Amino acid sequence: MTLKLACIQVKANDRRDADSAWRSLRQFIRDAAAEHDFVIVPEAAYPAYFLPAFESAVSLPVSDVLREVAEIARESKTYIAFGYADGKHNAAILFDRSGTKIAEKDKSYLWHFDHRWFNPGTEVSIVGTEFGTVALVVCADARLPELVRAAALEGAKIIIDLANLTASGPYANTLTNAQCEYMLSTRARENGVWLAVADKWDVEADTVTYAGRSAVYSPDGTLIVQAPSNETKVISVDIPVGEDGEITTADPAHRPVRQPRLYQLLGADTQDLPIYRILSEAITPEFAAPYVTVSALNQSTLKSDAHLQHVRRLIEHEPHLILMPAFPGELRDVLPYQELLDREQWMLLTDIPREGARSRFVTQEGIMDTYYTTHHFPDERPTVASDDALSKVFRCSFGYIGVMHEADGLVPEAARSLMLAGADMVVWQHGMGHSDALSIARTRAAENRIYVASVFSSALSTEGNAGASFLVDPNGAVVASTLVGRPLHATGAYCSFAVSRSKSIVPGTHVLFDRKPKNYGRLLKHELASI
Question: Domain named CN hydrolase: which ranges (predicted)?
Fold first, then answer.
């Protein structure tokens, strides 16, 4: 048994062309509805997305368009999710098989110029269907890890994303977007749910370019089907359902156990957060741009003298921060390492003693702080972490550093909490294969506007993965990487922490100030540790 789902990718239109565009789109909806159980139409499919007052008005009332969509749903006995703009509303509406409106949601995380003509809406909109619980989000809403996580905790089996994903580039057939490239697949994977997105393509009002690439992602983050970036397209996928008729999602055993007691910063008032204070600190960009080296280990054994020799070589590169991959065993004596460092150098040494992965910040003065893993998978021994483990960052002369281990990277609350605690960079020690780690690290960097250092070691891999270590900037771009699979390899780059302190993504959209902490109470409930 399956749920047959379609995402309609439509060519963008200016507001003045809304009526003619609607006549074409209406036929696409009618044709798709005749062959599918569920049809998704993009954000602001009618009348348009770019809606300043001076743009030409449309003649057909939005209410008439919605009435026609409801009629198609009733006649075809198909669920239809439709995006429209009306007054201050940028909304997603869901009609059931009888043409009855069963859910509606205004966009919550307003993007760029949205705030000039839209008001923000509710964060979560979920509704029950015979296929299980469905959640509606609108475009940039999916950038907020808290929003999609909340929907999953409420039982959503599929995230329906009505989008206008913007893009930039010289060729229409290569356009893409951060959400297309890595964010949406990570959202599906970290929550163990299906995610379907319908987008527009082409250009609106000569100033807004769309990425296209409507897609469906499975609960493990796999891209099942994707439209190109430069054509009208209806993509179709059969989503498996169980004997009860509900959508099949990922086995909870494949996701880390949440630790709500560690996420208290998520619900704190913005002005009470450490990052709020840190953003007001005066910095000199030249002194807040450490040269960071990161190494990867693709071999199961490494002698301690070879490990120390590698550090000696790195010292010759004159780094401010040295990030070493997890050593396959315990490093009892750090004195030989601290003796190599000068007064302005810091090192993160990670090893694996009996109690599990451990990271220690080392300077020439000795061990300055220690971090342990905070999350585990259901079949693993529970981690023992202090309640402030994700509220603690290490202060260096050039900025603030947070640390994650292994499963922590798969839990969006971990990196989010460290950002709220003030981290300019989060170091993630893991043994994950390169392609998977790349999507996750880029997502954590872009959603929090921080640097992420993804540090690979075979010592943390249980599947024999070949990996690489790399540095990601706050825009989600990889700025340095080691070679995948090379036994021991290092690279480095300057990391400007002044960029980490700028939390605006585009004008009108801010990573910190646009969060709504009062809505995140469900993320802190201990009874919702598993999804």
Answer: 3-241
Q: Give residue 298's identity as a one-letter amino acid code.
A: N
For CA atoms 259, 264, 267, 273, the dihedral sign is negative
Give mean pLDDT, residues 302-327: 96
* Cα angle: 400, vertex 396, 271; to 5 degrees: 35
Q: 């807004």: which residue's tokens? A: 208
- Residue/partner pairs of 67-72 with CB below 8 Å, 24 or more apart: 68/26, 69/29, 69/41, 69/93, 69/95, 70/95, 70/99, 70/100, 70/101, 71/99, 72/26, 72/29, 72/30, 72/33, 72/99
Q: By C-alpha distance, which of 354, 86, 79, 405 is closest to 239?
A: 79
pLDDT in tens, 501-520: 999 999 999 999 999 999 99
Tokens 């390492």 appear where? 337
**DSSP string computed for 74-87:** HHHT-EEEEEEEET
Structure tokens at 249: 């999602």
Which pLDDT belongs to residue 389?
A: 87
Residue 527 binned pLDDT confidence (cut-offs 50, 70, 90)? low
Q: How far is CA 272 from CA 337, 439, 443, 447, in A?
A: 38, 31, 25, 21
Query: Which letter does DSSP use for residue 511 in this model?
Result: T
Contact 449, 474 (CB under 8 A): yes
**Structure token digits, residue 206:** 């000569």
Neighbours of 439 (CB within 10 A): 18
Give Cα 276 to chain centroid, integer Å: 22
Please tell me the predicted confidence (pLDDT) of residue 85. Answer: 97
pLDDT for the residue numbered 388 = 86
The tokens describing 402, both together, are 């947070």
The token pair that represents 282 in the structure block:
């005066």
* 58 pLDDT above the threshold of 80: no
Instruction: Compute CA distances 22 → 59, 88, 258, whole Å.
Output: 12, 20, 45
Tell me the CA distances in angstroms from 463 to 107, 186, 328, 378, 466, one per residue in order.
40, 20, 15, 17, 9
pLDDT at 530: 57
pLDDT class of 529 with cuts at 50, 70, 90: low
CA distances in angstroms from 349 to 338, 339, 383, 413, listed in the order given: 11, 14, 20, 24
Give the model's pLDDT for residue 385.
Answer: 79
CA distances to 110, 142, 177 from 510, rounded to whole Å, are: 9, 14, 18
pTM of the model: 0.96
Length of the chain in terms of residues written: 531
Residue (of 407, 404, 486, 483) closest to 445 by Cα position: 404
